[in-house]
Amino acid sequence: MCQKKKFTMVLLIKPMYNTWEVKANCHHFHGQLRRKPFRCFRQRRNAENAVRSYRYTVLTFLPLNLYEQFQRFANIFFLLVVILQCVPAIATIPWYTTLLPLIIVLSVRGMKDLSADLARRRSDSQINSRPCDVLTPAGFTTLQWKDVCIGDVLRIHKDQIIPADLLLLCSSEPHSLCYVETADIDGETNLKYRQALSITHSELISDPAEEALSTFDGNVLCENPNNRLYSFKGDLYWRGKTHRLDIEHILLRGMVLRNTDCAYGLAIYTGSDCKILRNSGQVIVKKTQVEKDFNRVVIGIVLTLLLVAVLMAVGSGLFEYRVSPKMEVLSALGGGSTPVYRGFLAFWGYVILLSPSMPIALYITFEMIHVVHCLLIGWDLHMYWANNDTPAQARSKSLNEELGQVGHLLSDKTGTLTQNRLIFRQCCIAGDIYGLLPHQKLPLDLSWNPYSYGGLHFHDQRLVDRLVKQQCPQSQEFLTSLVLCHTVMSDTTFFAGTIRYQAASPDEEALVVAARELGWVFLSRTRDSLTINALGQTLNYELLALLDFTSDRRRMSVLVREPGGGLKLYCKGADVVILERLQKDSPHQESTARALEIFAQGCLRTLCVAVRTVTEQQWQKWRDGLQEGEALVEELHGRMERELMLLGVTAIEDRLQDGVPEAISSLRQAGIKVWVLTGDKTETAVNVGYSCRLIDPDTNLLQGEDFKDLDVWCIDNRPPWSKVTVVITGHQLADLMEEPEWGARFVALSNQCQSVLCCRVTPGQKAEVVRLIRKHTSSVTLAIGDGANDVNMIKTAHIGVGLCGVEGSQAVQNADFALSQFSFLCRLLLVHGHWSYYRICKFLHYFLFKTTAFALVHIWFGFFSGFSAQPLYETWFIPFYTIAYTSMPVQCLAIFEQDVSAEGCLRWAALYKTGQRRDLFSPATLAASLLYSVYTSLVLCLLPLGAFHSTALDYQTLAITVATSAVFTVTIEIIIQTRYWTKYNIAAICLSLALYFILTLIVHSKILHDKLPADFYFTGTSLNPVVWLTILLTTSFLFLLAVHCAERKMFQLAFLLLIFLQVHSMMLPTQVRRPGGFRRGGVLRHSSYAMSQGAGFGRLITSGTGLHATAPAQEGAEAAANGTKENNDKL
Amino acid sequence: MAASCWPASGFYREKKRNCSARTAIFDGGMMKNKEGEVANRPDNTAFTQQRLPAWQPMLSAGIVIPGFLVIGLVFIGIGVALFLGSQSIQVLESDYTGLNSNTPCYECSDASKKNCTCSIEFTLTKQFDGPVFLYYGLSNFFQNHRKYGVSRDYYQLSGDTAYFKNPSDSCSPYIYDSGVPIVPCGAAANSMFNDSFRLYQLVGGTKKPVPLDGKGISWWTDYNIVFRNPPLVNGSLAAAFNGTAKPVNWAKPAYELDTSDPSNNGFMNEDFLVWMRRAALPDFRKLYRRITQGDYAAGLPVGNYSLEISYNYPVIGFGGRKKIVLSNVSWMGGKNMFLGVAYLVIGSLCIVMSLVMLIVYAKYKFPEGDS
């Protein structure tokens, strides 16, 4: 089978796309050692199943890591400087002055990369050593994941993760169906099913399973590995026949087998060929605006440096041309070269000399500070949610300061603003409203119900009493309808004495659970029957027809034959749809309408429930009609769902997460535009908008037809815009997107409005909206969501936040930050974001100041030293200045600094606007900072020169005076900048100054000089009072100006705070919380239930696939379990 | 295919709710809280919660204005002290380059003349308090030029005889004199100042020599640490310099710099040390001698003096000037008006600034302590 000849023959006949060939069990034919042999591949080597996400090995670490690091502009720049410094003619400062900081920077970064790589290694080996059962000649053997090869037949047990992409051959379930959970693949937690080919199902089922499987010699020809998760093209050639394969026959790596005892599969793609691994593609590295701006500044510094070097070179050339020839010493030193050549050398000399003005340690410090800020986010107890034991998590380590600049917040609704937990709150049966009293919180006494296990938030004992005492036939009918009219599946196994339900719609699940708690228990269903337990009495209903929910029909019905033999049609659906289909004289219509109003006011989702008695004749007619054909089905359904009798209304609460209204109002105060993007309906979204205070009660809604006049709206720039909310649907949005100028206008309009709701949008559109905002505004966007449908949006926005919600981990996996609750976002932005922004802006400005101020001194000294690139510092001072003397205080500043306490940040949310306006970091502030450093360097150079003019004080004394002044000045600057003095700040400053004196004494010591006189020639330090007086003069001169500026800033800050306080006190009256639920003018009913965009279980139920026609599943499961046991015994 | 896009269903949510249901009222047996489930709970420390005790000074007007006032007053005080200290220092300065024909050294300024001597006469009408320092000053001389600065061999100067044979390349072009290594090599040594001075008091027509003290004029570390003579060979310094050439511009080799004092020779010659310590600026002065002995220990009395200059060092070629400076010193060293004036200026600026701020503050009074 595995011989080459055959391959080529197969090659001739196979379709074009089938270039990947897998032969089952072909290790038999190789007869070699177990592992290596069955590489039944052609063309290229297929991947082992071992994943390898680590990058380095012992040998490759150094070259690879250095290669990566030298892709950074700053590093390559300094490497070039080091190389230049090796040329003696231009080595104005020795090589070690640059190499020392460079090596430190490289090694810190290297250590960081190494530790990350080791962590990846650990997780790799953990994954690779997971166990799985592989079919070997000796039967199924438990091996590790990494040992799986293409062509292996695997056995997957219940709840096991699938190790490679498999072709499902057969399973222990009927029709070889198997259920899988795909949370790790698309983030959806509901079950999906996969089904084996009927040929493999029928031929390979055997007992024990090995027998048939080990003789399976099918040959799969399929497309090459790709990243398309939802498609698969291939054929199975077996026993001379070709069977078409598609994605429904494939189990993907990462899926979890559920509800199925055992599944057997043939490995098709392994390791990095698996679809899920092909999907984990390029990680988009997001960069913040601040970082981009600063990179530009760094490039600007380099260009300026080169320009200055050119000017100095010109100066040097002129000096060599006019002065040197007259002076015997200098002309001799010139060595006979031309002034132009000497100017050229001076250029390089100045490039080297001024290179310390490039902040070499900046990037590594910047990264370290980001890491600390991320840790602080993870450490924040206020963002730790005890309920699922999850702290906040910063997954991206480079976006912190952007958290303080968010202008647009784009939020998902379901699962983000709401808990995605639907709760049966109230109902109206025969005109009586139950569960209306919210203060009556006593739990119901449900001890009489053996099936009850909690989960009911319905508090009305009256209904329970009526049900138990069987006083009210209508309420019984109501519950019967709830328990019959749905597409929920019950778990075949009993789990801790309770029944687990599985539903395509969370609303349905809530209803069935509520019915169970109230005594009407849905037990199980087969293709054509439903078993329920009503008040302890097990009843079997024959299911005649199921008219499934669609978004057009907005209702669903079941036609059942009661145990007594009568036929009944139960129907539930949106109020509008049901009410128009009622009998003319159906009772309780008015009271129900009133109930609907009340429920809508309470932000509850309603469904009307109705019933109809059907005669046998009618049913016969319909059945005949149903069998006729598709075209008539809709009409027929319409005919069946008529003449209904209203039973009641259910009211379901889509609960908001804790603290969402408060968080949203804080964020709005902070000037953040909140947009809600949801796949849900307009009514639902608007209702949630009101209840989460996104929309004020007196806000006008701009929706639907109003957009036709968008031109008018935009031109007419009226002030009351602040009280307008835009509500737009996906269709309208799609229309907008087509015309680009409309997009710009729409964004401009939206920016003036209070908020925007986008309803009925697809995941793709969510990302489109983000792109639209990014395109037409300069503000930072933040997208928050919890589900796989938000991934697109999360990836597109500047910052993506994932909620660790109930919808799997897909959103979190793609997010930059992970939170447990929406309300934590408030703290993440207003506190951590604001602080990060404040700290990082201060840090960058100071860093720029300290490096440039100290290095630019050389320019000014050049005017006095014949443009000879004479350093004004001792050579050792230059690297130590970067590494030791000035690095610690600024790091402490960047970690501990707070302008306002956390409480203050949350209280005066308007403080956040400094980040949105980019007050602290803009070209203007950078220019100011640079000017200040130029000024500082001038003072640092000129004041000592003035004091030393015409004195006997020498160059060495001058160098020490300027160096000490520089250290003192930048230290004083950080002292002024620091507003939040912790013990660490004080320690860092003391340590830096102490280090300066200690290291200076060491470098100037006799011992080092005796060893290396040429490298340590600054022996002996002057303690002349003039030196100290000059240092005092210089530093205080700079200090006074800095204090003056700082104090003016302080005045401004105090002034701002004053304004905030006034604004705050003015805003207080509007902040008074509305008591209870929400009240507003026009009550908007919203009725219907959330249904998935795809189909539900309806098809599965009616087609009967996967449902046991008659027999309960227990026996089969037991048999399979026994089989497994036997297998295990054998092995 | 349709199966792939079902939304979240309740099946497994049910299970996950176990942990998310702590706040909700559940009475079932499944929904129990597990108290131990706080493994990921962050530590509640001041550091992790960013609640470190901290001092938050506010630069309010109440601090800044008095602060500026106090600093201003202190600086004015220092300025006054410096100014007065500087004022009290007597300085006698004389340019002896001899550019003009009416200056004493005009004849000597001709570079072709060798061993030229000239003398400057001056009269002191006031006692010149001791100790008096004699400096020579050069201007437009770029001792701080980088190439000049590096043109020396530190190993050689520390007495390492290995570098006597092979001086460092940094000395270029003053490494070899016709094949013989130069010691001390380099431009710095080669360009050593070689004028010499003698001071006489004219008492009744006779010249009474004023003893000039050349001891201790060099930097302590230079004399004691940095510069070292090579080990003597047979008790002779000259022998230690065997096989080396003197710098080309020097009249005598290093071991004969001071014929009067054998210990003041070689690299330990104090004039050499003073010269080798680079000046900070192109205009500089260097200490030549101190007047500390004999009748003149208390200073130079009133009278006429003559300064005899042995004029050797050419400066006119590069537009330089030579100066001779007599000065006494105070606690702050030599005369330095710049510092005093600078302190006074800054001090006054501080006071002016504090007054301006006071006016601004009085006008737009900000409520203190509101924030």
From TrEMBL, chain A:
<feature type="binding site">
    <location>
        <position position="760"/>
    </location>
    <ligand>
        <name>ATP</name>
    </ligand>
</feature>
<feature type="binding site">
    <location>
        <position position="679"/>
    </location>
    <ligand>
        <name>ATP</name>
    </ligand>
</feature>
<dbReference type="GO" id="GO:0016887">
    <property type="term" value="F:ATP hydrolysis activity"/>
</dbReference>
<feature type="binding site">
    <location>
        <position position="790"/>
    </location>
    <ligand>
        <name>Mg(2+)</name>
    </ligand>
</feature>
<keyword id="KW-0812">Transmembrane</keyword>
<dbReference type="InterPro" id="IPR023298">
    <property type="entry name" value="ATPase_P-typ_TM_dom_sf"/>
</dbReference>
<keyword id="KW-0067">ATP-binding</keyword>
<dbReference type="GO" id="GO:0045332">
    <property type="term" value="P:phospholipid translocation"/>
</dbReference>
<dbReference type="GO" id="GO:0005802">
    <property type="term" value="C:trans-Golgi network"/>
</dbReference>
<feature type="active site" description="4-aspartylphosphate intermediate">
    <location>
        <position position="412"/>
    </location>
</feature>
<dbReference type="Pfam" id="PF16212">
    <property type="entry name" value="PhoLip_ATPase_C"/>
</dbReference>
<feature type="binding site">
    <location>
        <position position="678"/>
    </location>
    <ligand>
        <name>ATP</name>
    </ligand>
</feature>
<feature type="transmembrane region" description="Helical">
    <location>
        <begin position="986"/>
        <end position="1005"/>
    </location>
</feature>
<feature type="transmembrane region" description="Helical">
    <location>
        <begin position="297"/>
        <end position="319"/>
    </location>
</feature>
<protein>
    <recommendedName>
        <fullName>Phospholipid-transporting ATPase</fullName>
        <ecNumber>7.6.2.1</ecNumber>
    </recommendedName>
</protein>
<dbReference type="InterPro" id="IPR006539">
    <property type="entry name" value="P-type_ATPase_IV"/>
</dbReference>
<feature type="domain" description="P-type ATPase C-terminal">
    <location>
        <begin position="812"/>
        <end position="1043"/>
    </location>
</feature>
<feature type="binding site">
    <location>
        <position position="508"/>
    </location>
    <ligand>
        <name>ATP</name>
    </ligand>
</feature>
<keyword id="KW-0479">Metal-binding</keyword>
<keyword id="KW-1133">Transmembrane helix</keyword>
<dbReference type="Pfam" id="PF16209">
    <property type="entry name" value="PhoLip_ATPase_N"/>
</dbReference>
<feature type="binding site">
    <location>
        <position position="605"/>
    </location>
    <ligand>
        <name>ATP</name>
    </ligand>
</feature>
UniProtKB/TrEMBL annotation, chain B:
<dbReference type="GO" id="GO:0005886">
    <property type="term" value="C:plasma membrane"/>
</dbReference>
<keyword id="KW-0472">Membrane</keyword>
<keyword id="KW-0812">Transmembrane</keyword>
<feature type="transmembrane region" description="Helical">
    <location>
        <begin position="63"/>
        <end position="84"/>
    </location>
</feature>
<dbReference type="Pfam" id="PF03381">
    <property type="entry name" value="CDC50"/>
</dbReference>
<dbReference type="InterPro" id="IPR005045">
    <property type="entry name" value="CDC50/LEM3_fam"/>
</dbReference>
<feature type="transmembrane region" description="Helical">
    <location>
        <begin position="337"/>
        <end position="362"/>
    </location>
</feature>
<protein>
    <recommendedName>
        <fullName>Cell cycle control protein</fullName>
    </recommendedName>
</protein>
<dbReference type="GO" id="GO:0045332">
    <property type="term" value="P:phospholipid translocation"/>
</dbReference>
<dbReference type="GO" id="GO:0005794">
    <property type="term" value="C:Golgi apparatus"/>
</dbReference>
<keyword id="KW-1133">Transmembrane helix</keyword>
<comment type="similarity">
    <text>Belongs to the CDC50/LEM3 family.</text>
</comment>
<dbReference type="GO" id="GO:0005783">
    <property type="term" value="C:endoplasmic reticulum"/>
</dbReference>
